[in-house]
Design brief:
2 domains; 67% helix; 2 strands; two-stranded antiparallel sheet; 12 helices; mainly alpha
């Protein structure tokens, strides 16, 4: 969910912990255990697996008190225990476990936390903090209803990185789709390639830079050439159904292409 805090007040660096992060994680765990009404059983599993003793387990304040002074390692281990607990006990509400995991990841994003939960809700440090910061700033630059689809592609790009193992190719492709979506809004042309950039986007750039200094014009033109090269590079990772098995690019190359792509996406959005 977009809020003022997530769009404009995110910290410059990802955080390892905070009172708000702890509170929201515990509130989420309490809520989902409450969906199946098995507080005591959940309390017993937390005790057995993590030596976390929750007194008066059916009362929300006791959960908060328990986790407030717990070591951060135990706080970050608890979601995987609750996820497992839900898979065992949710019965006809089997969807609750994955819904819980998705909300844990949402909290991590909204609190700018340096973690993510994998498919079974085991919490891991996020890869490459510098990349995470670029991602957050890209999302900020895509605020507003016009960029909802582009934000969705950037979110999917991020989700691909957080998979185990990461789907680098699809992350690059989703970043390209975000750029293509913005290109379409700017030009009414749905196909993004270097020739279309020259024909459709370069005149927009030249018009915007008309009053700029000579230095800024030269820099913008070099950035534009970089955009064209990036588009060509991203095209290498388009994967169609029926293609041969995917060979993933290296993490180092992928992060360069994705991070550069985020920058170009935000730059293109500024022309809207």
């Amino acid at each position: 969910m977009d809020t003022f805090a997530t769009l404009y007040a995110a910290p410059d660096e990802l955080i390892a912990e905070s009172d708000d992060l702890r509170h929201r994680l515990v509130a989420c765990m309490y809520k989902y255990v409450g969906e199946i009404g098995k507080y005591m059983a959940a309390k017993d599993m937390l005790d057995e697996e993590l030596a976390l003793i929750v007194f008066e387990a059916s009362k929300k304040y006791s959960w908060q008190d328990c986790f407030k002074n717990a070591r951060i390692q135990k706080v970050l281990s608890a979601p995987s225990v609750i996820y497992f607990f839900l898979t065992l006990n949710a019965g006809r509400k089997a969807y609750l476990a994955n819904d819980f995991r998705d909300n844990i990841n949402r909290i991590f994003v909204e609190e700018s936390a340096a973690y993510y939960a994998d498919d079974v809700c085991v919490v891991h440090p996020k890869p490459d903090e510098a990349h995470r910061l670029i991602h957050l700033r890209t999302i900020k630059g895509l605020s507003g209803g016009d960029f909802e689809a582009a934000r969705g592609h950037i979110a999917k790009s991020d989700e691909c990185i957080l998979q185990d193992p990461p789907d680098w190719e699809n992350s690059i492709y989703q970043t390209f789709k975000a750029a293509e979506n913005i290109f379409k809004q700017l030009t009414d042309d749905s196909q993004l390639n270097s020739a279309k950039l020259d024909k459709r986007f370069k005149p927009i750039l030249d018009g915007k830079m008309n009053e700029a200094t000579g230095r800024d014009k030269r820099a913008a033109n070099r950035a534009y050439n970089g955009l064209k090269e990036w588009v060509q590079a991203a095209h290498e990772y388009r994967h169609d159904a029926g293609d041969a098995a995917v060979v993933q690019p290296s993490e180092e190359l992928a992060l360069v292409l994705i991070s550069e792509g985020y920058g170009f996406v935000r730059w293109m959005a500024s022309f809207k």
